[in-house]
Design brief:
The complex is a heterodimer of chains A (248) and B (211).
Chain A: E1 6-10, E2 15-20, E3 24-30, E4 37-43, E5 46-50, H1 53-59, E6 70-72, E7 78-85, H2 99-106, H3 111-114, H4 122-131, E8 144-146, E9 150-152, E10 158-160, E11 169-175, E12 179-184, E13 201-207, H5 216-220, H6 222-235
Antiparallel strand pairs in A: 1-13, 2-12, 3-11, 3-13, 4-5, 4-8, 4-12, 6-7, 7-11, 9-10
Chain B: E1 14-18, E2 23-28, E3 33-38, E4 45-51, H1 61-68, E5 78-80, E6 86-93, H2 107-113, H3 124-134, E7 149-151, E8 174-180, E9 184-190, E10 206-210
Antiparallel strand pairs in B: 1-10, 2-9, 3-8, 3-10, 4-7, 4-9, 5-6, 6-8
Classes of the chains: A alpha+beta (248), B alpha+beta (211).
Chain lengths: 248, 211
């Protein structure tokens, strides 16, 4: 197994942000089971380019995200590809709890009384990290909620599935662009747990293998091939195009 | 849920037909009701809402569907903001279901969805980009142009996590009505998309009425 370039266990209910380089991978492990990772992507060269959940979902005709799916920017490019996933169904439409909702659901846990065991909301966490890059609530787009499964019935009613949680569940994102990653480990808004779930997530940064013509994510949907071609245009890669075909 | 309106078009204080490929931008005062009317049927009206007194507060698809526990919008749905405040309520709906997962078309996403050669076909986001630059007084920019509602669009989610784009369930004369719970800026792109069934491959005008 490859030695990570860097690794860190992010405690539950915390937030972090960092830059991922094109050609590196981010492997996340739900250490205990039941974690949630809220995540957003921005292009550090033009932060107005950001992860776009609707484009990612409609482009790949999916409501859930799993291995093979690419995470698109609003400019028709791929920030990251899901190259490994032992969890199987990640949410990207439920957003975050707001601070008032955390207080109502779990009780007030201020820093004054609990120091770093305070109860943070996903919304607060994102706002805190975004400000470090000059970004505000205007820049807060629909985020990923990794390790949280939300399904629907025929009438569109949404269900959070706690049985999907698995200790050791792992998802690996391969970055196809330079990417500012903003993340938190605060509870998913539909998690029915009555105690604030503080679930750690192990984060490993790795060097990724180069993308080849037979790459699983590249070929998972014809749309992905065209989005990779847009990445090639962005970087003006000298490498040959993967020659994506139009959908008839 | 199908719910007819009791409001009469002849009593409306404002009426405007919006051709496909154009945008509509107007402030709705708290308590006013806006109707979006699908004149010829199967037309997608891609819509964003902003707090007219503070444009950093805007319609949030995530907050709206999470708080109602359902991914579809219809009569009774309260549209919520990114601060989780109620912005508008859907008070009448003769279509029965509207999408807020699929987002708007953009020239960039058209290259991904359809063909790299379709880069220069008109798209909703371009209408919005022009709207914010032609109306700087609204204080809006690209970062405010985000996850919208697709009125009259049918995007069913399947139990196994698929997302499908189906023929519109709308028809000529179908409408949706919303009551503003705060002073609200309405920004509509009447969708010019030619490549999928959301407009029946034939974009047509809508009418906006306000009482």
């Amino acid at each position: 197994m490859q030695t990570p370039l860097y690794q860190y266990t992010l405690p539950g209910g915390a937030h972090w942000s960092f830059r991922m380089r094109r050609g590196t991978a981010l492997r996340l492990t739900d250490v205990e089971g039941g974690a949630n990772v809220g995540m957003l992507f921005y292009n550090p060269e033009e932060k107005l380019e950001r992860y776009n959940a609707p484009d990612s979902l409609k482009g790949q005709h999916t409501f859930k995200l799993t291995r093979g799916n690419c995470l698109y920017s609003d400019m028709g490019r791929v920030f990251a590809s899901i190259v490994e996933d032992s969890f199987g169904w990640h949410d990207t439409v439920c957003g975050n709890l707001h601070p008032q909702q955390v207080k109502e659901k779990y009780g007030e846990h201020r820093y004054q009384d609990h120091h770093n065991d305070w109860y943070l909301s996903g919304h607060t966490s994102f706002l805190t990290e975004l400000a470090k890059y000059g970004l505000t609530e205007r820049d807060l787009a629909a985020n990923l909620n990794l390790f949280s499964k939300v399904a629907t019935d025929d009438d569109g009613k949404m269900f959070f599935d706690p049985s999907a949680a698995k200790p050791g569940a792992r998802v690996t994102l391969r970055f196809e662009m330079e990417t500012l990653v903003v993340m938190h480990t605060c509870p998913h808004p539909l998690n029915p747990a009555t105690e604030y779930p503080k679930k750690p997530v192990h984060v490993e940064m790795l060097k990724a293998d180069p993308v080849t013509a037979d790459d699983y994510c590249l070929n998972f949907r014809p749309e992905n091939g065209r989005a990779f071609e847009n990445n090639r245009l962005y970087y003006l890669d000298e490498a040959a195009s993967f020659k994506p075909q139009a959908t008839s | 849920m199908i719910k007819e309106s009791t409001l009469k078009p002849e009593d409306a204080a404002f009426r405007e037909v919006v051709p496909a490929g154009d945008y509509f931008l107007k402030v709705l005062k708290k308590g006013e009701t806006v109707r979006i009317l699908d004149l010829e049927g199967n037309q997608a009206a891609d819509t964003l809402f902003f707090n007219a007194d503070d444009s950093a507060e805007r319609y949030s698809a995530m907050d709206t569907i999470r708080e109602q526990g359902n991914v579809y919008l219809t009569a009774g749905t309260v549209l919520r903001s990114n601060r989780n405040n109620p912005m508008l309520e859907i008070t009448a709906d003769t279509c029965g279901r509207h999408d807020t997962l699929g987002g708007a078309c953009a020239t960039e996403s058209n290259t991904v969805r359809y063909d790299l050669e379709k880069r220069c076909m008109h798209a909703c986001r371009d209408s919005w980009m022009l709207a914010v630059n032609e109306h700087e007084e609204f204080g809006l920019g690209k970062r405010d142009i985000t996850h919208n509602i697709n009125f009259f669009m049918n995007v069913p989610v399947t139990a196994d996590g698929g997302l499908t784009f189906e023929d519109g369930i709308s028809a000529p004369g179908k409408y949706v009505e919303l009551k503003a719970l705060m002073n609200t800026t309405v920004l509509i792109s009447n969708c010019p998309q030619l490549n999928n069934p959301c407009n029946g491959y034939n974009p047509t005008p809508i009418e906006v009425l306000i009482w």
